[in-house]
């Protein structure tokens, strides 16, 4: 299994900026082609002080389960990110999978799953709807989404003051209906299944962010599932937790 354990090791750039890279983790070649690819998108309220190191333990776990894992870094608030740069990077990072050697995986038929935590959950869900916008049209389609305690409603996030106004910092202004291109809650319904895994004791991003999204998606006829797990905001990215075991079980349904 390929495991980039240190900064710089195993990195593949998809752009010229220092934050435009991913880390590719592949299962052992002896098991055959990967089951599919999971794009791991870290959280941190889109801020530069949080980076792809948050996703590495999950990527290692995914590779051990037979998945190709693409641990994605992107520009964030404070290092050139914001709107639209952060979104452009996530789109470009996903599209870059077409140019990678993925251990015999055929992207035309294999699952391409975005899995993100917190702000990464927002970007994971956003990525599944991005191809509707001409700016990102023609990109690699996402076939399923796993949001881990995701910030899925930017307007509700700002109203609740989540992350000290992080949504407004991302957009450059308080979110409104005019920001539908960037807001998963305003992209409902998606054409792919969405699982929202969320800790019942989460005080950073309330469970209502996932619960409301799933309820509205189901009402709109989309396939969406709420998976409530015991624990706080970070239990969902602990690879030794029952919450992560439940997330792996969700992925088992896909490949």
Automatic annotation (TrEMBL):
The keyword Hydrolase applies. Residues 24-211 form the BD-FAE-like domain. Keywords: Hydrolase. InterPro entries: AB_hydrolase_fold (IPR029058), BD-FAE-like_dom (IPR049492), GDXG_lipolytic_enzyme (IPR050300). The keyword Glycosyltransferase does not apply. Transmembrane segments: none annotated. Pfam families: BD-FAE (PF20434). Signal peptide: none annotated. Gene3D superfamilies: alpha/beta hydrolase (3.40.50.1820). One of its GO terms (molecular function) is hydrolase activity. This is Alpha/beta hydrolase. It comes from Nocardioides nanhaiensis.
């Amino acid at each position: 299994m390929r495991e980039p354990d240190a900064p710089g090791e195993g990195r593949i750039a998809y752009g010229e900026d220092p934050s435009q890279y991913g880390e590719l983790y592949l299962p052992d070649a002896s098991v055959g082609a990967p089951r599919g690819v999971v794009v791991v998108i870290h959280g941190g309220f889109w801020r530069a002080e949080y980076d792809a190191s948050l996703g590495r333990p999950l990527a290692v776990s995914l590779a051990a389960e037979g998945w190709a894992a693409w641990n994605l870094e992107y520009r964030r608030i404070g290092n050139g990110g914001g709107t639209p740069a952060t979104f452009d990077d996530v789109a470009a990072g996903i599209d870059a999978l077409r140019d990678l050697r993925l251990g015999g995986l055929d992207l035309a038929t294999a699952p391409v799953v975005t899995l993100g935590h917190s702000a990464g959950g927002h970007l994971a869900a956003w990525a599944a709807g991005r191809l509707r916008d001409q700016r990102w049209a023609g990109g690699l389609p996402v076939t399923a989404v796993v949001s881990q305690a995701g910030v899925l409603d930017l307007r509700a996030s700002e109203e609740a003051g989540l992350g000290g106004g992080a949504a407004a910092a991302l957009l450059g202004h308080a979110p409104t209906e005019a920001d539908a291109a960037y807001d998963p809650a305003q992209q409902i319904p998606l054409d792919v299944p969405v699982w929202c895994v969320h800790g019942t004791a989460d005080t950073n991003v309330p469970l209502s962010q996932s619960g409301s999204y799933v309820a509205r998606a189901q009402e709109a006829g989309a396939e969406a599932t709420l998976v409530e797990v015991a624990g706080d905001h970070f239990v969902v990215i602990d690879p030794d937790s029952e919450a992560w075991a439940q997330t792996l079980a969700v992925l088992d349904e896909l490949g």
